[in-house]
Design a protein that fits this description.
The protein has 572 residues and is an alpha+beta fold. It folds into 3 domains: 190 residues, Aldehyde oxidase/xanthine dehydrogenase, a/b hammerhead (Aldehyde Oxidoreductase, domain 3, Alpha-Beta Complex); 182 residues, 2-Layer Sandwich (Aldehyde Oxidoreductase, domain 4), CATH 3.30.365; 110 residues, Aldehyde Oxidoreductase, domain 4. Helix content is 26%, strand content 23%. It contains 14 helices and 23 strands. A 7-stranded mixed beta sheet has the order 3-5-1-14-11-12-13. The protein has a 5-stranded mixed beta sheet with strand order 9-17-16-15-10. Helix 8 links the parallel strand 16 and strand 17. Helix 10 packs antiparallel against helix 11.
Length: 572
């Protein structure tokens, strides 16, 4: 291969390095207004009254909005497409604050400085409600939320139970049993670019949204639900993104910006600072897991019991998927003949959680690998050998969904990695005495490619040959800073006999791009890359047919190379 196998500069590297690439925070529009949000200082409280008089008295303030004068349509910020089933427990501005940092009000002003000064003048009366801050307190309880429309807010959000084989018998015959409890903390994505969004009115009553998001179609679906309008009234375009890692998978500011642009008839931008991004967006979900494994004397795993609780925070988002996602990753790593799994997602009055790289894999594999390391140490066995003895083999079926694991070469990966690392020597040489200690360790993990493993995935890519002879790739995927645009360009260029730099990639746009679920779930190269390859193959065939006619050559004689259509004795 001439393109796919090459290390090349990112196709947008020069624009980033020179500052030519304009992010959403750089965008200037005539009449641009700026928003600043007021956040709840309480973990759980009813918002009794909002007095905007102080803010409205500030010169340059356009208006103040809160739950009393904004739509109260329920929505879920984690949906990816219209009609997706998800608990719609979020509001643009909720009447009950469910966590510190929940949205209370927004001030719109002529400058950001005016908006930020004015928002501090809003006076809010709260009625405190019982707050649950630790997931352990929620499993067997429910807490009453204020307001008839809220009814009883259940803290146990989702649970998954799974049993395979006979775990009790496995533990009864085990030579060794190891048990441990592992906590994994919340963590923030810490992308270089804080959250930001720009929206403006378009002719015909539409609203344009320019956002550094992970899916323009997800933004369109979420905002339409939040505003209670048809999705085609929203024109969403992708802004260049300064990192995400999952943190921009869910629309946070987009519903508010769209509403204010519609209400005022002027462009609106809201840009979070770093503190606001930490306290009012999303984090990785924390977990508490307890695992017990039964082993034979040679290190074979005979059975395993897992009980894990995931703290999803104040709103559902995509937390209902986490217990199942963790089970899915768990059973794909080792061939365990007897398994019992109990997983649950619970609400707390803390910052909501959401998509983050791995989506359940770090939490469940931290638990499983720590327990397996403890067992190896207790039994005096090599951790690499124990893992290789139990890891899944090619053609295996995972027991939960019955899906084939394909050509799973985990043992080869472990042994080659150990050899390259010089595992045996370095493990023996590790120092375990004195104040400063050094050591080596290893772990194994699995992940998935695609949003819904075991179900159909879909994406669409369009390649166009322009009248000037250039190739344009149009798809609704987003380069999050990891070079995915370059990857897709390399794939197309490989098929078409071009250089990656010669492929023009159009930004994601709901008006011009075919549908896609977005850049998430490690699906971009595996799924979208194949769509681009198929589209490029079809385009190449059309070019070859046309070129063959022009060159009076058989199709089998035509080659696409170096931007030319080549026949044995002539090229164009």
């Amino acid at each position: 291969m001439e393109q796919v196998s090459q290390r090349i500069p990112l196709i947008d590297a020069a624009d980033k390095l020179t500052g030519r690439l304009r992010f959403a925070a750089d965008l200037t529009l005539p009449g641009l207004l700026h928003g600043a949000l007021l956040f709840s200082p309480r973990a759980h409280a009813r918002i009794v009254e909002v007095d905007p008089a102080g803010a409205l008295a500030v010169s340059g303030v356009i208006g103040v909005w809160w739950h009393a004068n904004t739509p109260q349509n329920g929505y879920n910020s984690s949906i990816w497409f219209a009609g997706q089933k998800a608990l719609a427990d979020e509001r643009m501005f909720p009447p009950v604050a469910r966590h510190m940092g929940d949205r209370v009000a927004v001030v719109l002003a002529e400058t950001e400085a005016i908006a930020r000064a004015a928002v501090t003048r809003i006076v809010v009366s709260f009625e405190d409600l019982p707050a649950i801050l630790a997931p352990e307190a929620t499993v067997a309880h429910a807490v009453a939320a204020a307001g008839v429309e809220e009814a009883i807010y259940p803290n146990l959000m989702e649970q998954v139970h799974f049993t395979h084989g006979d775990p009790d018998a496995a533990f009864a015959r085990a030579d060794h049993v190891t048990e441990a409890v592992v906590h994994t903390p919340r963590s923030h994505h810490c992308a270089i670019e804080p959250h930001v969004c720009v929206a403006w009115p378009e002719p015909g009553g539409r609203v344009a949204i320019h956002s550094p998001c992970q899916s323009v179609y997800a933004v369109q679906a979420v905002v339409a639900q939040a505003l209670g309008i048809a999705a085609d009234r929203l024109h969403v375009t992708k802004a260049p993104i300064g990192g995400s890692f999952g943190g921009k998978a869910e629309p946070i500011l987009e519903p508010i910006c769209a509403l204010l642009a519609e209400r005022t008839g002027r462009p609106v931008r809201i840009a979070f600072n770093r503190r606001e991004t930490f306290t009012a967006t999303r984090t990785r979900a924390a977990s508490r897991g307890k695992m017990r494994i039964a082993l034979a004397c040679d290190g074979r795993i005979l059975g395993r019991e897992t009980d894990v609780t995931v703290d999803i925070g104040a709103y559902c988002t995509g937390g209902n998927y986490l217990p199942g996602s963790m089970l899915q990753r768990l059973v794909r790593l080792y061939a365990v003949p007897a398994e019992r799994y109990r997983g649950r997602a619970v609400y707390t009055n803390t910052l909501p959680t959401g998509a983050f790289r791995g989506y359940g894999s770090p939490q469940i594999h931290a638990l499983g690998e720590i327990v397996l390391d403890l067992a190896s140490r207790e039994m005096g066995l090599d951790p690499v050998a124990v893992r290789a003895r139990n890891i899944v083999t090619p053609g295996a079926l995972e027991p939960w969904q019955g899906l084939s694991l394909g050509n799973a070469r985990g043992a080869d990966c472990l042994y080659r990695g150990a050899e390259a690392f010089d595992w045996t020597r370095r493990r023996t040489a590790a120092s375990g005495r004195g104040r400063f200690r050094t050591g080596v360790g290893m772990a194994a993990a699995t992940h998935i490619n695609g949003c819904f493993p075991g179900e159909d995935e879909a994406t669409t890519a369009t390649l166009r040959l322009t009248p000037e002879g250039r190739i344009e790739l149009t798809c609704a995927l987003h380069d999050l800073g990891c070079g995915s645009d370059t990857t897709l360009a390399q794939i197309a260029a490989e098929v078409l006999g071009l250089r990656a730099a010669e492929i023009r990639i159009n930004p994601a746009d709901t008006d011009t791009c075919p549908y896609d679920l977005g850049t998430r779930a490690s699906r971009m190269t595996y799924i979208a890359g194949e769509a681009v390859r198929l589209a490029a193959t079809a385009l190449a065939a059309a070019i070859v047919d046309t070129g063959g006619q022009a060159l009076n050559a058989a199709r089998s004689e035509i080659r696409l190379r170096g931007g030319q259509i080549e026949a044995p004795h002539r090229a164009i």
